[in-house]
Structure formats: C-alpha cells, structure tokens
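Continuing from the previous page of notes. For each protein in this section, the sequence appears first, followed by its structure tokens. Read the first protein now.
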Amino acid sequence: MNKMLKLVSIAWLAIASSVVSVQANEVLDRVAVIVNDGVILQSEVEAMLAQIKRNAAEQDINLPGDEVLRVQAIDRLVLQEVQLQIARRAGIEVSDAQLEQTIQGIAQESNMSVDELRNEIERLGSSWSSYRESVRKEMLLGEIQRGAVRERVYISPQEIQNLSEMLDEVNSQEVEYRLSHILVGLRDGSGGDEVQDARERAEQLLDVLRNGADFAETAISASSGSRALEGGDLGWMNINAMPTLFAEAVRGKREGDLIGPIKSGVGFHILKVADTRGLETVEVEEVNARHILLQPSVILSDKRAREKLTEIRAQIVAGEATFEEMAREHSSDPGSASQGGELGWSQTDVYDPAFKQVVDSSEIGVISEPFKSQFGWHIVEVLDRRVQDATERSKQNRAYQLLFRRKYQEELENWQQEIRDQAYIEQVIK
C-alpha cells in the first residue's frame, strides 16, 4: 500500500475509533461477536464501517449497502481478533522503540518530519495516541503473519533456477552486443589433419589475445572472416539477430569476454564482446578483514577492555606479536579467533553498523584504534578489497523474492482460513 494512503487509512481508523468511543460513552457498548475467549464490540464494528466509508470516499469508490458492508466488516474484525489472540499467546509484542522507528519511516516516505505527521493526523481529527496504537496493531498483525506463514513457504532450488532462466530469456530480447570476430578458415573437404591444424592455430590466437594482444590488429592480420579489415567488428546485434552458433555462446557474457574457439562448417571462430547495451550487471565490493574482540563482563570492565585492546594493538604495531597470535589468545569471537581473527570475504552490510563504518573507512593494512559495537570493543584490520560480479546472485535473489511473494500470499490466505475455521465464533448482534 502507498505510504501516504496507509497513513490516511490508519488515521481514519483511529478517528472512527475515537468517534464511536465517544458515542459508546453515551450509550452502553454491546458485544457484537464472541471470538474464542475474546469479544468484538459493536463500537469496533461501527469504527470499521466508518473506516471503509472514509477510504471509499477518498478513492471515489461506490459501496454496496450497509448490510453487506457490515458482514465484510465483521469478517475482517473476526480474522484480526483471531490473529491478535495468537500473537498474545505467543508473547509477541511491538516495543515503543520499534513503533517509533516505523512511524519515522512512514513520515519519511510521506516526505514529512514526525512532528509534521503528527500535525497532519491531528488535522484529520484523530488523536496522536490513537494513531500510534493503530500503527502498533498493524505491526503486530504483520509480525504474527510473517512468523506463521514464512515456515510454510518452500521454494526449491529448481524453481529458482527455472524462473531465473525465464527472466533471463525475457531480458535478453532487449540486450544488444557489439561483437568482434576472428575466423580461422577451413576449405571445403578439409581432412582431419587440416582441421586439427586450424584448431591449434585458433587456440594459439586465443592465448595471444588473453595475454593482452589487440583484437582488431590480430583480426586484420590473422582472420579469414569478411570483416577482417574492419578489425573483425560485426556491429551491434541482439541474440535473435546472431547466427545460432554465436547466440548460444554469447548468452550471459560480459563486456571484454573472449569466446571460442567455436567450430562451424567454415572453420573456427573467436569472438570478443566489445561492448553491451541494455545488459543489467551488478557489482559488489567485498572486504577481507580480521579483528580482535573483547567483551566487557563482570571481570573485565568496559574501560579495561578498551585499555587492553590499546595495549594489544601497540604490541602488534611494534612487531612484538602478530595479529594472528593475539587474536587466538585474546579474542572473544569464537568464530574468528581460531582463524587468527580473519572474517573472510564478505560485503560490509552484514556487519554491525559501528563495525561496518570502521571497516568501510579503513585503509588496507592499517590496524584501527579500539572502537565499540553492540558486541564489545574491537580492533580491526582490512586485509584486502575486491569488486565481484554479483549479477547471477542478484538474478537468483530476484527470482527467489518473486516466488516467495507469490507463495507467501497464497499461504497467508490458507493460514488465515485455517485459524478462522478453528476458532469459536458466535455473532451476538445480527
């Protein structure tokens, strides 16, 4: 749901609740529906009806009569109450800190500050406290739904692969490649020795190119192809416009890739992807770092942990001990201590924010000053950085997310129907 629409929707719910609450003080509220060991009040039904009508008016939607709407409203409230009961039994809560973070996110998505959001909610006629509790309830429902449904969703590796390939096929129709070409030709009726000789010459040319030789110069001097004098340039084409033999070999390649030798009836072909356009590529930076962690405890105070790390760092810098030795002897991180503090290659997004900040800003080979994260006090050294092609990983992740969203919605509806069928529901007010 659009964030602004969600903002207004929750606001109208809070407004309707507060309006009906006032009315309920004048006329004794009544139980409308019994749901297991809980109840839905008549005022809640009226609040839901008011919300539906307000939302419809905002979106200019025509609604059926009140009797039909009341049935829909009661169904919605029953399902909501059953889920909230499950959440309460499971001890699931939304903390004030989580609530504040979500409200801040809603404000940012609506291009407002939290104070401006509060003013807007109050301008619409709701109290800020009612709005906060409406957001908290939505968060609680989302949490119990994710917890219950996530474990019901199974996605096989084959499903991910199949969808990834299908997406690849669709996207490849838009991608164009600029290819360069070298042909080591064969005359009609060439015997086995001639074919082998041509293959070896093609392999030798490929080795020369891999060692840095200029492709265009090599094509002019060695290619039998029709575009040899143009440096082997075949121009721009997409997969469908290429010879089938080339299309199969080029699919999934990147700019600068060398391909071949590919055998055909006229000889052996060597291709280079000189350029691409419309091809989605994803690159990520990975860091190989090592650290020493000291966790404050009853025995080791926070101040002493920092001082001790300062001493350890001084010993390493002075050459009196190695990083590996000190990590094995002192680090509180069992996963890396035995490896001399090494964390291996990874993106820094996986780290604690304070740890990530230091790693991102550190120079290679320089041991940081002691700093604190949620886990304790650290010193860290970045050993190396590299840029990795994560395009395939990104495609697989996209396929997984698409499959998950599709199956999640199906399983959510199944789960909600199951818990509703298992609940005791008695409608008191018809």
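Done with the first. The second protein uses the same format. Note its length before scrolling.
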Amino acid sequence: MAPQRPDGAGAQNDKGAGKRPSKRRPVLAAQPRSEQLYAALDLGTNSCRMLIAQPKGGGFHVVDSFSKSVQLGAGLEKSGRLSRGSMARTVQALRICQQKLRKHKVKRMRLVATEACRRALNADDFINRAHRETGLRLEIIKPEEEARLAVISCAPLVSKKTENLLVVDIGGGSTELVWIDMKNVPKRDRPQSIMRLHSGFIALDKSMPTARVVDWISVPLGVATLRDQFNDVENDAARFALMSWFFEENLSDFSPYHDTEARERFQIVGTSGTVTTVAASHLGLKRYDRTKVDGLRMSSTQIDTVISSYLEMGPDGRRADPRIGQDRQALIMSGAAILQALMRCWPTDKLSVADRGLREGLLYAQMSADGVLDSGAF
C-alpha cells in the first residue's frame, strides 16, 4: 500500500489550504467534574493497550492500565484478513479491558482501532464480534486522527525554544509523521499550541496562537508490516539495511523531506516501543523505568551505537536481552530500521524520547474538550 495522505495532507499555506475538516460530534457529557475518570483504548496491529485516568492539573493521574500483545495483524499482509486466532486473542484481551472499565465505573471513554482494522477486509465482522462478546464498541480511526492524537500526547515534551517540530509515531502497522511550524507562536505558548491541535490540523479558531501543520503523512509500514515485507531475507544485517532504505523511499511524498535548508531550533520527538526500547538499552537499564526514559534526549551517535549492538547480538542475543525479549527481537530491528532512516533524513542529531502515544492523546483530547485541564500547566 502507498502512504496515505488524504485531503488536507501536504504542504499548507498560512491560510490553511486544503479541505476543511468535518465537524466533530458535540461532547454529550454533562458539566465535567475533575474527579471524573476517563479511559482510552488503543487496539493496534500488535498490541491492545488501555489507560484509565483522572485529570490532574495540565495532565492526568493513571488509575489503572492494561497492555497485552495480541498480534491482531498476524498474517494480514498475505491474506488481507484478520485470522480467527488473532481475533480470538484480541477479544479475550478486550474482555479484561471491559472488566476494568466496569470496576472503575468509567463513563467517558474512547476505544479505537488503527491500521490492522483499517486494512482488513473482515474488519467490520471483527468489530461486531468484539461488541457482541464484550459490549465494547471499537471505533476505527483514520490516519489523520491517529497522527493528531500522537502529536498532542507529546505536547509536554515540546521545548519552548522549538520553532520546527517533527513528531514520529512508529506503530505496528503504520508510521505517522507530522511536521509543525511554531515560529509565529510566542515561546511560552508553544507546548500549549500543540494541545490545541486536538480539534484538527487546520486551525479554525484564529483568536489564540496556533501551531501550523506544514505536512503530515501516514506510511503503511510499521514494525510488523515492514518486518513482513522482508521476511525472506535471511541475513540479519542485509535485511536491516533493506528495511531502512525501503522505508526512506516511502517518505518521498512528505514535503519537508525535500527541504534541505538547515534548521535551527528543530526538534524530533519519537514515540513508540522501538524508541523507548532503544533508550532503555542506551541507559543500560536492567528493568524498564519510565521516569528515566520519557523525555530523554538521545544523539544520533548514541542511537547508532545501540542499533549496532543489536546487530552484533543477532537474533539469539536479542531474544536473551531482557529489554527486548523473545516476542520483540524481530520487531525491534524493523523499528530500528525506521528510526535510523528518520535520523538520516533530517538536520538534527538529537531525538526526544516519548513514552506516550495514542492512549495519552485520546485522554488529552477528551479532557481538553471537556475543559478539565489546567491550560497554564505547560
């Protein structure tokens, strides 16, 4: 599949060229209370993950969480369909999520599915089965919304000195990239201007300083789909090199890719299991610690050193590494190939690591729409 860039994608001028986004459905919740709980569920190509949280200041406090590898997209690349086994595993995980939602009496929630369900021919059958067996109604979101939610989840990590921002979300089935220009936003308002993108990439409210989305793209290559493309290549290093260059070829329609002008005050924020695993390896953590990883800045040299160590380990060594493990040893190399391609393409030698993503974006969007976040917290 070619990268998805629906109406509205592509370079935009200051007046917000492109198709105006459709109006979002009005929030039906009554007057929000700060003690109200919110939930966000992200069903991706590999994992089913959920957060239940309570608003706190400009962010939230996590009350409960769930994460399980369900491999919903296993075999999808060849058959175009979700398999019986993958659907059964996923429904079982969704039952656990439903029990947690009931236990905490959560009323405000968004439960979304992404690339695997966007591509599968039998996605509607799966959505109906999940609803029938768990009572949960999953919503298949479009690539633009997935990209937007990833962006706003990273707002707290945006430096007030940043003028150009690239947010990269490496998923299981796709990778979203969003390029944002904040030069005309006062420094103190730059992180908050990212939060205001929750309503759409084209700003309709001109009364407040707004970050301008220059371009965005959804490449249908994530850690699972890119790995599947090159499963027949036996040599570990050759497979890695092919994956990295193949991913870069799929960025050719992304307009900032062709802009070689050196940029000052430029920041890349990477959000994914790949990025956080590379960060944990760089820090030498024996046990994962989110407080040490989230917000860490890594140089391109440090990233290359970690990736080189993965190649030296080989498949058996990566399986034995506690930061990678049996299930992710192949996925970490396809993710590392994407990460290396990105660092090769743009004029910076630093990457900000974000242990956050779609779930956090879903929570921020709901809470921001309800007006229960402290806007001055950033």
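What the second structure shows: The two ends are 39 Å apart (CA to CA). The first strand starts at residue 38 and ends at 43. We return to this in next week's lecture.
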